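# step 3/5: fold
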Amino acid sequence: MPNASRFGRLAWLWLSLLVFVVDQATKFYFDNTLTMYQQIVVIPDYFSWTLAYNTGAAFSFLAGASGWQRWFFAAIAVVVSVVLVIWLKRLKPEETWLAVALALVLGGALGNLVDRVVFGHVVDFILVHWQNRWYFPAFNIADSAITCGAILLALDMFKSNKSGEVAHD
């Protein structure tokens, strides 16, 4: 395929777009269906849909700040997104898992970026808990994609080293 290496693994941007569209559609649905903190139990004692807004970052980091964090996190998301696209473009054809990881992180970053810029907060709607005693902070599809992408990035780092040999303990 001529010029395929010129575009690196940018073809994986379809995955970023899919993550972005599913993320935005689900946020729109739950934001317009639920009232704040209303819970719809899906699996009793373990999993619910809920509506929560996060003005901070992961685990509501800096959510209580005076508003500057909105633009700070938006700027970080823009810079990270540009870096990820450049990285995807520079990948070799055999770096498929790395491309998938980067595409997942990119789609999630863009999904949360749009929320921050347009609404001033990120819409979360997935709530994992244990018998109403322990709650994991609410999250969304974008957060899930970023987490899965980060795990794939970590696994990719351990699978091989620079010389192309499989890493051994």
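# step 4/5: annotate
The two ends are 38 Å apart (CA to CA).
# step 5/5: archive (pending)
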